[in-house]
Write a structure and sequence with these properties.
eight-stranded mixed sheet, single chain, binds (3R)-3-hydroxy-3-methyl-5-(phosphonooxy)pentanoic acid, alpha+beta, four-stranded antiparallel sheet, globular, 14 strands
Length: 333
């Protein structure tokens, strides 16, 4: 069987995209900036099904069993696949299996990892390398804009042209430039009830959305320069302001979306306190209740020993900045 496997990382947006100017083509209203992760990855294996008449979608569960993909995953792949097929003019039925190394749909960018893995596996299967220039756009056509950023490692901006809001993702610095850590406090590992897609579509209904869009170029520039200059204090300021602004939009959308849990807020408060005590630490929250605690490698152990005492954290994922998709020699089937 001619199998192709890749792993592709999740990413955590430091400046997030929220709201689209073209929902059909997943074109955002603002440029975003993320840090690619290294331990939270999706793995995708695909292979042609000789003589098969339809695609087959599988999921490798945490017991290591290959089971039929659930309806949400299946629908996501079925939405993405036609764009990939059309791009390469490739129509043979496929068996596609995926798995994640982290909780799915809980605000840890499982769609970014999953769809960038699918696009990357398809590109490699069609004889191209992982540096294929269109990979970012092919990942975006899944409907998950954040997938466009996962095709690159380090710190990544999407769209690459922030003024025109166009073009594929662009790496602004590789992972080695600043090896930041991401301690992910999992407050609730369940699948979130309001998807990011629904959140994007509701963004316009918040009266505060135009103000957010007005502030974002300044936030992006502050974060970008802070990264280039490895200035943690300036990065922390941009990251936390932006995260709170995003959730303000979610909470003031009609109907409102409340992603936070009491433990989310408790972590945010403690992180601010630790920063005022001189630690390089800040926090951001994706479309979910879980908190990404970003810190320098040097301050990681102290930050964790302070935060682990907080109640209502189910578990921690210790991640750090990493590289983009990789081809694998081991397959899921
Ligand atoms: O890529 P999507 O459609 O799942 O949306 C991602 C939205 C956020 O994670 C909240 C922000 C971002 O830029 O990653």
């Amino acid at each position: 069987m001619n199998r192709t496997s890749v792993s592709s990382p999740a990413n955590i947006a430091l400046i997030k995209y929220w709201g689209m100017r073209d929902a059909q083509n997943t074109l955002p209203n603002n440029a975003s900036l993320s840090m690619t992760l290294s331990r939270c990855v999706s793995i995708c294996t695909l292979a042609p099904l000789p003589g098969g008449s339809a695609d087959e979608f599988l999921w490798k569960n945490r017991h290591g069993e290959l089971v039929p993909a659930d309806p949400t995953l299946r629908a996501g792949i079925e939405h993405h696949l036609p764009a990939l097929r059309e791009h390469f003019d490739y129509w043979q039925p496929l068996r596609i299996a995926t798995t994640n190394t982290f909780p799915t749909g809980a605000g840890i960018a499982s769609s970014a990892a999953g769809f960038s893995a699918l696009a990357a596996a398809f590109v490699v299967h069609c004889g191209q390398s992982l540096s294929y220039p269109a990979l970012s756009d092919l990942a975006r056509l899944s409907g998950s804009g954040s997938a466009a950023r996962s095709v690159s490692g380090g710190f990544v901006q999407w769209p690459g042209n922030a003024q025109q809001l166009s073009g594929p993702a662009l790496q602004i610095a590789p992972a080695q430039h600043w090896p930041l850590h991401d301690l992910i406090a999992v407050v609730d590992a369940r699948h979130k009830t309001v998807s990011s897609r629904q959140g994007h579509l509701l963004a316009n209904s918040s009266e505060f959305y135009p103000t957010r869009l007005k502030l974002l170029p300044e936030r992006l520039e502050q974060a970008r320069r802070a990264i280039l200059e490895r200035d943690f204090t300036r990065l922390a300021d941009a990251v936390e302001r932006e995260a709170i602004e995003l959730h303000l939009i979610a909470m003031t959308s009609q109907p409102p979306i409340f992603y936070w849990k009491p433990a989310t807020l408790a972590i945010l408060e403690r992180v601010r306190q630790l920063r005022s005590e001189g630690m390089d630490v800040c926090a951001t929250i994706d479309a979910g209740p879980n908190v990404h605690v970003l810190c320098t490698a040097q301050h990681g152990p102290k930050v964790f020993s302070a935060l682990r005492k907080l109640p209502d954290i189910q578990h921690w994922i210790f991640d750090q900045i990493g590289d983009g998709p990789k081809r694998l020699e081991q397959h899921l089937f």
